[in-house]
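ingest -> validate -> predict -> emit
validate: passed (alphabet ok, no gaps, 85 aa)
predict: started
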Amino acid sequence: MGTTRKTITVTDQQDRWIKAQIAAGQFTNDSEYVRDLIRRDQASQANIEAIRAALIEGEESGDPKPFDSNQFKQEMAAKHVDKIS
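emit:
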């Protein structure tokens, strides 16, 4: 995997925060911290996209059906009865 060098500017407060994370042993240097933030953001965006896709799938699945909570509880109890014992 190739790399690209980037130069960023952070506030003094942000710099102190990054240095504190490094001092706490969370990261070995500034670059590692920034890469971790990017990975977390990428994962967060992937989760958001998965939720959006699930919502669209649900919207396109047809009209809603009435929900019977008593029937649902009975079905779940019957389904998991052997796991309770």
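The chain has four helices and no strands.
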